[in-house]
């Protein structure tokens, strides 16, 4: 199966590498930035282009560009004979339907950084397809690179993506705030690393609601007031402290 | 060294077990709830009491009760000849000074759940002491159960605790919100577990600021608007979405 990869960002890079080690054949990488296209194409031992009108003939066109950029990219590519796949958590399948007879979605749920290796087989992939034939094709591709493949509707995928933003991007922002607090008091982020690891490890076998700890969970109002005071110089952190503390207190008041 | 353990909560339980496997000798457990005292005392093969006036003579009194409860417990215990230690992240050493000649703090930084085993040696312990002799004693105790022992002032410990609330308790609340979102759309929390694991794993070797991903980081405004819309039924989650997204956008706008 010949695949053209459109995009060279984090998701495109990891998908491309996973396909490179499968029976699928990535024949070309497109990026609007020629240097980026060439960098990834070199790794995947294929052609590079920055011209959407010069895409190779292929069985599968795999689109992995920013959601905002997708409509313009589709318009410039024009209609395709192969299976057209997008990789967005948020966009509906409908968006790409006019551009090919067979369309599908491959949404790998993971936080990809270009320079961190990942075992793609462990990453759940969520698929959606415009019909039985495209479903068969997209699931075959997903199964070639992942051990966990699930069909989801566009609506469900959108909610999964919102949940992922809370569990990953927002969690990472909380880590970053914690790092800021430590830094401003000459403390090393290293001190928190075992705690962060264990917090994530606990919910691998239990539900988060069952393992909450800390002053809000205990209703330790003296500590909560003390913490609020120590955050006085940063109104955004104070607001976060209030909203998240109230959320925790309400969650356990209901029980 | 004879130790009396005052408290039978999560921290007291894990500390007691760690000491049980060291050269320290836990001789008695106090809890205001007799059944809880006996439960832990059984595990530590020692006496149980629910009467603070009947504490055994010991070299070390290790206080691990809720911050709110500490002043009343101290008053009822009365002054002690041994080393008096508290385990609070927030309370200053000063609070217990009037109750013993030698006082100290042992603050183990971890999220303790009673029924999840932990390798205590991996948990950083932060100490503080009222003088050289108590410093020697408290550091010896901490080193007997942990590989990482650091002296911190009360002020630094308080800020470390605030940072830990963000990195652990608030993170776990975000996991819980993600679980709520999934549940309301008939999706299993299991789907997010690899993502949560990887988000925590990434910051073990890098700083959180260096590994952020997602729509806020990318400036993907269409997705951000779509997500806000999907959270319409829950104003608290919408507020969190806004504050955390703005935080991420500001963080990278500065760079």
List the helices and strands and how they pair.
Two copies of one chain form a homodimer.
Chain A: E1 2-6, H1 10-20, E2 25-30, H2 34-44, E3 47-49, E4 60-63, H3 70-77, E5 80-86, E6 100-108, E7 125-129, H4 132-145, E8 149-151, H5 154-183, H6 193-202, H7 215-218, H8 221-230, H9 235-253
Strands ordered across the widest β-sheet of chain A: 3-2-1-4-5-6-7-8
Cα Rg of chain A: 22 Å
Coarse morphology of chain A: elongated
Number of helices of chain A: 9
Q: Which oligomeric state applies? A: homodimer
Major sheet details of chain A? 8 strands, mixed
Provide the succession of SSEs of chain A: EHEHEEHEEEHEHHHHH
- Taken as a percent bin, the fraction of beta residues of chain A is 15-25%
Helix content percent band of chain A: 40-55%
Q: Unreliable stretches of chain A, pLDDT < 50, 5 or more residues? A: none
Number of strands of chain A: 8
Report the largest inter-chain contact: A-B, 94 and 93 residues
């Amino acid at each position: 199966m010949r695949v053209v990869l459109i995009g060279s960002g984090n998701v495109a890079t990891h998908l491309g590498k996973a396909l490179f080690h499968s029976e699928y054949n990535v024949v070309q990488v497109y990026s609007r930035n020629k240097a980026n296209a060439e960098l990834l194409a070199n790794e995947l031992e294929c052609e590079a282009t920055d011209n959407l009108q010069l895409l190779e003939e292929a069985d599968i066109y795999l689109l992995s560009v920013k959601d905002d950029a997708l409509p313009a990219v589709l318009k410039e590519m024009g209609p395709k004979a192969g299976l057209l796949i997008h990789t967005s958590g948020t966009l509906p399948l409908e968006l790409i339907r006019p551009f090919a007879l067979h369309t599908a979605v491959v949404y790998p749920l993971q936080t990809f950084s270009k320079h961190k290796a990942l075992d793609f087989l462990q990453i759940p992939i969520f698929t959606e397809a415009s019909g039985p034939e495209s479903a068969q094709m997209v699931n075959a591709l997903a199964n070639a690179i992942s051990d966990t493949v699930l069909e989801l509707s566009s609506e469900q995928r959108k909610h999964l993506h919102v949940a992922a933003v809370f569990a990953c991007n927002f969690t990472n922002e909380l880590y970053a705030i914690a790092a800021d607090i430590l830094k401003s008091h000459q403390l090393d982020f290293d001190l928190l690393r075992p705690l962060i690891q264990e917090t994530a490890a606990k919910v691998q076998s239990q539900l988060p609601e069952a393992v909450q700890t800390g002053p809000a969970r205990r209703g330790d109002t003296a500590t909560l007031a003390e913490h609020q005071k120590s955050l006085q110089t940063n109104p955004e952190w104070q607001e976060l402290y209030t909203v998240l503390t109230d959320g925790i207190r309400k969650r356990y008041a209901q029980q």
